[in-house]
RNA sequence: GCCCCCAUCGUCUAGUGGCCCAGGACGCCGCCCUUUCAAGGCGGUAACGGGGAUUCGAACUCCCCUGGGGGCACCA
């Protein structure tokens, strides 16, 4: 590429950023970084009524969390209305646009009628060729006035999409559309066209849902004296379980929520990169730098992708496991303890942290696993676990032996080892150990027992075992197996 | 209704006319390891939507059908 690459991510601040938007941002960012170009953040807040300040900051925070830093911006379109309106005046003066006095309701009603009668909806061109007198009369009625772009009556609109080849449509099927609202504010098509020109955008990478609007934006560009086209790449959509496009009100989850649920930004980034793109070498775990090095726009595929949480979970686990232990302890283990209000005695918990690292998929997961460390009065054994796992034949013997062992053993991993104690009773460890897990950790699928006992300490461990032993009662009271 | 886009295992994908009776990954199933659960190792299940055409030869090219999705706002 000879010219410097300039791409933009241009969300509307009308809601949170979800995986679809994030993937679009990521591909733009990767493309810019790969080519040493500029990644620009542009906020398309031309719809003043729906745009909110908090979404603008929210989107930025999310991008930064993912590590998608921008080189220019954020440029708020709401600060550039003058430029768009000047362009509109020029289009008006040169006959590419006209003043339209149809109200929103009228247009909507006519469209609905058209749909009902099986005709194609779309602006019917009522105000297309008004005379000066007619316009004056309508204005005198106090009717609101919009500025509407006049699309060509015939011919074909075409552009080349990197992923899909030539995309062509008959102009006859593209109806005139509003570029300035009756309140005088500009709309997406106008602002988008003007900004892409003014910002020297070279490549437009966005969702496929915008593919049809491309013809309209291109028509404005041409009318404004810029017939040259940026390179377009319309990314396949990310769909939900029902294969329908994800949106704020349809199945989409805010990226913010992924953060709260304990996903690592690098894992989410990696996963997102694999939605619609695959590295030439077929690897799944690809670092940010490798992504930048390998990413090519024409390797992106064309069909919609389903967001698979199972695979994301796996990938997040991979990233957690790949962390150096000290970093895991510092950034994930310790904060989890703090959230549980457990004093982080890291020396005592070292082995536990190591054991936990390979067992969790999210950092939120870790909290559940570590919840047994809470103070004694808050520790409870769920009734169903008690019945299923602890209240079994020979449980009394088992607990008596375990208590005896832990009362005197050396307080090391090897010393705590209960295997020979259990085997000494003629019991199979695999069969009966779960009872001890539940007594100590409150659950059968839990962090390793010896590390947990060690972390809990001798007194607290014995207290839990004795409590369970007491509840079991005398041997004769044991329920028949 | 009209226009546009898409079509390989359940899911994400590789594949660009012979190397494919289709490869990898997630999931799932089984076995091993094992103090539970994981992780790890080994193995397995599973797909080119249908029909034509081109060709010596099609997952790969073309056409039709079917299916799915998107768009047709004073949203973006």
Molecular structure report:
The protein is built from 21 helices and twelve strands. It is mainly alpha-helical. It has five domains: 116 residues, Rossmann fold, CATH 3.40.50.620; 99 residues, Glutamyl-tRNA Synthetase, domain 3 (Alpha-Beta Complex), CATH 3.90.800; 74 residues, Glutamyl-tRNA Synthetase, domain 2; 50 residues; 100 residues, Orthogonal Bundle (Arc Repressor Mutant, subunit A), CATH 1.10.10.350. The strands form five sheets. It has a three-stranded parallel beta sheet with strand order 1-2-3. It has a three-stranded antiparallel beta sheet with strand order 4-5-8. Strands 6-7 form a two-stranded antiparallel sheet. β9, α7 and β10 form a beta-alpha-beta unit. α1 crosses α10, α3 crosses α6 and α13 runs antiparallel to α20. The C terminus is likely disordered. It binds one RNA strand of 76 nucleotides through α4, β7, β8, α6 and β12.
Characterize this entry briefly.
With 481 residues, the chain is mostly helical.
What is the topology?
Elements: E1 6-9, H1 19-34, E2 38-43, H2 53-66, E3 72-76, H3 81-93, E4 97-100, H4 104-116, H5 132-140, E5 146-149, E6 156-161, E7 165-170, E8 177-180, H6 188-198, E9 203-207, H7 213-223, E10 231-235, E11 238-239, H8 255-260, H9 265-273, H10 288-294, E12 305-306, H11 309-322, H12 325-339, H13 346-357, H14 363-370, H15 383-390, H16 395-408, H17 413-416, H18 419-424, H19 429-441, H20 449-456, H21 458-472
Parallel strand pairs: 1-2, 2-3, 9-10, 11-12
Antiparallel strand pairs: 4-5, 5-8, 6-7
Helix pairs in contact: 1-10, 3-6, 6-7, 9-11, 12-13, 12-14, 13-20, 15-19, 16-21
The structure holds one RNA strand of 76 nucleotides.
